[in-house]
Write a structure and sequence with these properties.
With 218 residues, the protein is of the alpha/beta class. It is built from 6 helices and 9 strands, in the order H-H-E-H-E-H-E-E-H-E-E-E-H-E-E. Helix 4 links the parallel strand 2 (74-78) and strand 3 (96-98). The protein is globular. The two termini are 32 Å apart.
Length: 218
């Protein structure tokens, strides 16, 4: 059972994304068409990964669907039941389920890849080791994890998000130093295989970071 602070974080996140799910899908469904670098990172991941892939924190399924078009065997998992409902409606050929990235209902060593595309931005930094341990557990040796997140220059930065996608919400948003995330991945057992930090574009208020980790072979 989650401790009270973890339970509070999970409840706040689930509630907020249940509220915004339909509008979130409408606003972001074509975002990849506007981001050359994000498509490049996802395309590179699709070329090197081998085996089934879970999109953890998949939201309405836009990244899941994009990777499926790149011939990956995809499934999506999200904390928000409403997000999962939207994903199932828009990507009926892909299996989606409700779940937490802190406690994945997946077998050990079963995945070739795992994507957490901006799905850790609300996770308190002290819980990242728990998430990365779960990612390591469910990936097979040789499997790869791909993270996308908001980059900070120094330590983690916490921001309050009170409005989003036309709704009043209550969420904490964390910007994370890429080196901190890389160190936490390494502590979980991963070997870093790719890192990219790009400048803010359009409406973004900070640089964006992408990290790929490899679960070593035995």
């Amino acid at each position: 059972m989650a401790d009270p602070e973890t339970a509070k974080y999970l409840s706040k996140t689930r509630m907020a994304y249940d509220v915004v799910a339909d509008d979130y899908h409408v606003v972001l469904r074509d975002e990849l068409a506007e981001s050359t670098w994000e498509r490049a990172v996802l395309g590179g991941f699709a070329e090197v990964v081998d085996g089934p892939v879970a999109d953890v924190g998949c939201g309405p399924g836009r990244i899941t669907g994009h990777l499926a078009k790149l011939d990956l065997d995809m499934q999506g998992i999200d904390l928000s039941p409403q997000m999962i409902e939207v994903a199932r409606k828009n990507y009926p050929a892909i299996p989606f389920s409700v779940g937490s990235l802190l406690e994945l209902d997946l077998p050990d060593n079963g995945l070739g890849g795992l994507v957490a595309w901006y799905s850790l931005v609300h996770t308190p930094p002290q819980l990242l080791p728990t998430a990365f341990a779960e990612f390591f557990r469910v990936l097979r040796p040789g499997g790869r994890v791909l993270l996308g997140f908001k980059a900070a220059e120094a330590g983690p930065e916490k921001r309050a998000l009170t409005k989003g996608y036309g709704h009043e919400i209550d969420l904490d948003v964390y910007w994370l130093p890429p080196q901190l995330v890389a160190d936490l991945l390494s502590a979980a057992g991963f070997t870093e295989s790719m890192r990219m930090v790009r400048a803010a574009e359009r409406y973004e208020g900070q640089p964006q970071a992408y990290l790929m980790g490899l679960k070593p072979e035995r």
